[in-house]
Amino acid sequence: MAPRALTTLLSLTAADALGAATEFRTPETIRARYGETFTGYQPGSVFGFAPGEATDDSQMVAATLLGYGRGEGLPGILAALREWLGAAPPDVGGLTRAALREGELEGGARAWTESGHQSAGNGGLMRIAAVWLAGFRGAALDRESAVVTALTHADPRCVYASVFFTAWLEGLSAGGADWEAAEAALERMDRLDARAALREAGLLGLSTRPAHDAFREGDRAARSEVRARVRSGLLGHVTSQSGYVLDTLEAAAAHARADSWLACVEPAVLRGDDSDTVACVAGAVAGARGLEVPPHLLPPLRLGHSWPGWERGWSCLEHFPALLEGARAQPRP
Predict the structure, then answer these.
(1) pLDDT of 267 higher than 70
(2) Strands, E, within the chain: which ranges?
(3) Looking at residues 155-177, what average pLDDT do you find?
(4) I need a labelling partner for 206 at 20 to 30 A (CA). Which of 131, 264, 302, 318 fits?
(5) Residue 8 counted as domain residue
(6) CB-based contacts of 175: which residues, under 8 Å, 6+ apart?
(7) Mean pLDDT to the nearest integer, 302-331
């Protein structure tokens, strides 16, 4: 197991757990209740997560890794995510729920079509670090990130945001500077024909023709929007911490430029709205950069739900190494 992978998995989970208490709250409400700093787990989650418990973001990362451990490719990942959903987690995004209920690889495309090809939430981005954590690299990482995202979020903005993000994690973990690694990741995003990758994987086809055509029509604009938001975030701009995938990506890029782990995560937590997801994504960046989670946050860290392969009471610090080993033991293309 690569040490940076464990650092990153713990980092995104701890950041998610910090953000759980402030999700859907305003900055004013957060400061009135918790003060001007947020350095430890707190009560107050609208979904009932206890202090130190992470939300659906980290749960789906873990479920995806459990899926890789089956050695069955995309069907195994889909099955693992459906098992997680079947255990009735308290917090599930609408598009994620609709896509996984379909029970087929094309479920993400069908759910997107049912939304009028408008839904572009962050439910794919929040879990996509799992692909890099599972050991995919280079062009294989780019393709896998596209298809794993599209299992639930087939909008090209979601797909290309994920392709960029995992390539960025790879570059940062190799020691690249924020800007240089981001520009290299954007170049990789531009080289990938994601629509072809989704067709080859069986996620787009004759039965999902409307989604196929909508993806083709939105492809170029989606790449442009991802590129603009990444660069805006790296300049420190935050449009919003809404659940829109490009808002999340921009905000996480802005927050994660800081020099310490807490400085990368705390601003996302204090800003509220979809704070757990923005913090989780920023935490993945901080971990890939090698920034260490403050030691006091690790012993109490848990995932806030039980499903096949994971128990709510398990310590993340104790059980994450085996989770990663199982996922990374599978052969990679």
Answers:
(1) yes
(2) 53-54, 302-303
(3) 97
(4) 131
(5) yes
(6) none
(7) 95
AA identity, residue 99: A
Q: How far apart are CA 243 and CA 246, in angstroms?
A: 9
Residue-wise pLDDT for 115-124, tens only, equals 999 999 999 9
What is the reported pLDDT for 333? 61
The tokens for 290 are: 């090698």
Whether the CB-CB separation of 124 and 153 falls below 8 Å is answered with yes
Q: How many domains does the chain have?
A: 1
Which of 116, 98, 117 lies closest to 108 in space, CA to CA? 98
Which helix (H) or strand (E) segment holds residue 140: the answer is helix 138-150
Q: Is residue 236 in some structural domain?
A: yes
Domain range enclosing 300: 3-328
Tell whether the torsion through CA atoms of 314, 100, 324 and 51 is positive or negative.
negative
Instruction: DSSP letter for 121, please.
Output: B
Nearest CA among 285, 264, 243 for reference residue 23: 243
Cα separation, 305 vs 313, in Å, equals 8
Nearest to 87 by CA among 118, 54, 60, 123: 60
Asked if residue 333 belongs to a domain, the reply is no
Q: Which pair of structure tokens corresponds to residue 35? A: 């003060």
pTM confidence score: 0.97
The C-alpha atoms of residue 40 and residue 26 are separated, in whole angstroms, by 19
Strand residues in 228-327 grouped as ranges (E): 302-303
CA pair distance 225, 284, nearest whole angstrom: 22
> For the residues 181-192, what does the mean pLDDT come to?
98
DSSP state of 258: S
- Taking Cα atoms as reference points, which of 304, 251, 244 lies closest to residue 282? 251
Report the CATH number that the domain containing residue 56 is assigned in CATH. Answer: 1.10.4080.10
Query: Quick one: pLDDT at residue 184?
Result: 98
Do 312 and 303 meet the contact criterion of CB atoms below 8 Å apart? yes
What pLDDT is attached to residue 166? 98
> 196-214 pLDDT, tens per residue?
999 999 999 888 999 999 9
Residue 19 near residue 276 (C-beta atoms within 8 A): yes
How far apart are alpha carbons 296 and 148 in whole angstroms?
33
Mean pLDDT lowest for which of 49-53, 130-134, 174-178? 174-178
